[in-house]
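Re: the multi-chain job from yesterday

Posting the exact lines I submitted so nobody has to dig through the queue logs.
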Amino acid sequence: MHVFLLGVSHQTAPIDVREQLDFSSRDVGAAVEALAARYSAGEAVVLSTCNRSEIYVASDDPARARQELIDFLGSYHGLPPQAFEAHVFEHTDEDATRHLFRVAAGLDSLVVGEPQILGQVKDAFQVAATRQCVGPVLTRLFHTSFGVGKRVRSETALGEGAISVGFAAVALARKIFGRLDGRRVLVVGAGEISTLTAQHLRAQGVGEIAITSRTAAHAEALAVDVDGRAIPWSDLRVALATADIVITATGSPRPILTRADVEAVTSRRRGEQLFIIDIAVPRDVDASVGEMEQVFLYNVDDLQAIVQENLSRRSSEIVHAETIVGEEVERFAAWRRSRGAVPTVVALRQRFEQIRRAELQRLEHKLGGLTPEARASVDEVTRLIVEKLLLAPTSQLKALPDEETQIAYTEAVNRLFELRDEAAVSPASDEVDAEPPNRTRS
Amino acid sequence: MKILPLLLYAVSAVAYAIHFARRDPAAGRAATASLLVAALAHTFVIGMQTMEVRHIPFASLPNVVSTFVWLLTLSYLYLEISTEERAMGVFILPIAIGLQTISALTPGVEKVDPVLDSPWFWIHVASLLCAYASFALAAVLGLIYMLQFKEIKKKHLGYLYNRLPSLLTLDVMNSRAMTIGWVFLTVGVAVGIVWTAQARPLSPDDPNLRAMSLDDPKIFFAVLTWAVYSFALFARTRLGWTGRRAAWLATVGFLIVLLNFLPIGYFVTTSHTFQ
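And the result, structure tokens for all chains:
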């Protein structure tokens, strides 16, 4: 059984192609069911986010699976294969495993280490699982990927530190004020970053957001965007007295807040801390304001520096995260290989059991005189002998290190025990796989 | 007997250090659990001593120090559990270990001078110890505040920045610890004054009682401590001395407390030497 993956992601396909192949806006569950019905293995998971649409299947024949998946994508989305085939990537077995583990760890994300993707992977699996579209291979694969995501999260700093100016400002505000609910925000001048930052702050539950701008209309517009209140430009200094967080982003060539302005309201602030985020270039707030005891002044360069540092810290954690992924890929591969031995193991067992039954049958006339208890004992003893004989070959076959060796061993076992016929008629049986070889059936 | 809690405190300190370095929630829970065990063991030791001498072991300085460590641990545990902030553990435990070591190395004899056998004495010592434990917490909070303040002010957001709580949280906790400490200190000092006044006519020849005046270093420093903390509370509410100034006062105040508690208590004072 092979793991096969086919899909598009932000690394292989432009946005318009990804949009056309998107499943998330439609019924993913129906897509998974349609898929699973088409494949002999019946295992399929569709992972679809704004950055990727990926289909994972368990298949005995990856080449055929590839063709079927291309056909499926085309027919499901109503596109000719030529429209997307060039942007599609595909992976088999260890490569597919590695890809999923990297995705779950946030290593394949546009913003490395972002946390949402792990939840999306879990959801994708859940959708398939509730529709009974996954079997042992994909269940194991996805459950392992959740573990990888968790390990990377807890053992590395991959997802730590804000990586946008807005979030860096919010993180700082939280280190100054703790919880932000009820904090008063003053936004001076409307701009993209100040809007984003105000929105992040709003999401953190701040109290009133007062907005002022030299052009009143701009303030009004921003007030609507962030659920704030526009105040006249002339009230700037009044609002300063009660604000906890001030964001400045005007196009003024000269500072609009000087040390004297802030000092003038200090006595009314009674030692309350003031966090000023000056996003404007040239700067809106005189640098000497930052020297005041109760003022924390960060300009756009300071915030960019934090973002850069966080980004470089994240990238230095990538190696560590990749190591974890590598370990887990190896572990999963070993498990998958052990499953490759299942048909042979099943055939071997059936062969032995067949011989045992035949022998008991042959000795029927001699055993006929025994009491029922004694007959049961004979049955039990022979069964145990067979189990014991099979114990070592079973575990050895499952632990073979690579596929080539496995084929060689399987071939040898088939020939030694003349299993060819049984192997052909008994496909991989999960019941047998799930049962430890040393368990007696008494 | 005091060695067991000491060892457990040491184990706990290691756990807090690991939690601080790795920020692993499991390590944090282990640290809290180990400190709870240490506090329980310490409670047991103090309980045993209490049963043995039939009063809380307050009457010799090493035992007082040990009881102080016990109170500090309990109040820290309360703070930690009520705020879910574990970062202070790594700062508090060295103090606990240091003081407990001093206490363990100098065996104290619990013999109560008959002059001390009064309910006033127990209230006096107990409230002062509670005050000092609160001040110790306030000082550590102040110290952490200054570290965190420096990180944010200097825009150097490094190792400590990520691990320490927010400035406001620290300031609020500091204020609370100082206020509680001040109340206990006031009660302790007031009871001391009233009780001395009452005891003096009863045993006019007791050298300890005769030494009870502002000239005695221990009493002088106790009053100074009260003055410093009273000013800190006044300045916070009236002058807006929050944040770093409050943090400084908390640290300075506790340095005076420590000075009074150990070197002066052990070597200099002529009052308060009741054995």
